[in-house]
Amino acid sequence: MTSERLAALVCAHVVDGSAPLRMVVHDAPIDPSDSGWQFLCGEGETEPPSVWMLSEVIEQFPDVRVLLDQPVGRSFVREREGAEWIAYEGEP
Ligand SMILES: [Zn+2]
């Protein structure tokens, strides 16, 4: 399981609440402080994401916890908040 003290990217819409968290991507970490996880609205990003600690993401969005032992290269999409995550190999 990824350390919850590592950094994760959260899209500007999810941060400001203007769009729900609907896409989670597990990329390869870019450095030792990075988890490689991205938490996105999935509707196209035009602004730079925020950097959160993974533990902060889990606190705000507890239903991502079930994903966090999934390997690099996988991504997850759901239709709406509370819906089941659908897994993809690579980008959906
Ligand atoms: Zn977004």
Commentary on this structure:
There is one protein chain. The chain is of the alpha+beta class and 92 residues long. It has one domain (7-89). Helix content is 13%, strand content 29%. It has a six-stranded mixed beta sheet with strand order 4-1-3-2-5-6. The two termini are 22 Å apart. The structure holds zinc ion.
Strand content: 25-35%
Tally of separate helices = 2
Number of strands: 6
Give a quick account of the main beta sheet: strands, pairing sense, barrel closure: 6 strands, mixed
Q: Estimate nothing, just give the exact number of structural domains.
A: 1
Tell the overall outline.
Answer: globular
Distance between the termini: 22 Å
Key features?
92 residues; alpha+beta; six-stranded mixed β-sheet; 2 helices; binds zinc ion
Could you give a quick summary of the protein structure above?
The protein has 92 residues and is an alpha+beta fold. The chain is built from two helices and six strands; from the N terminus they run E-H-E-E-E-H-E-E.
Q: What's the helix and strand layout?
A:
Layout: E1 7-10, H1 12-16, E2 23-26, E3 34-40, E4 50-53, H2 54-60, E5 74-77, E6 86-89
Parallel strand pairs: 1-3
Antiparallel strand pairs: 1-4, 2-3, 2-5, 5-6
This protein binds zinc ion.
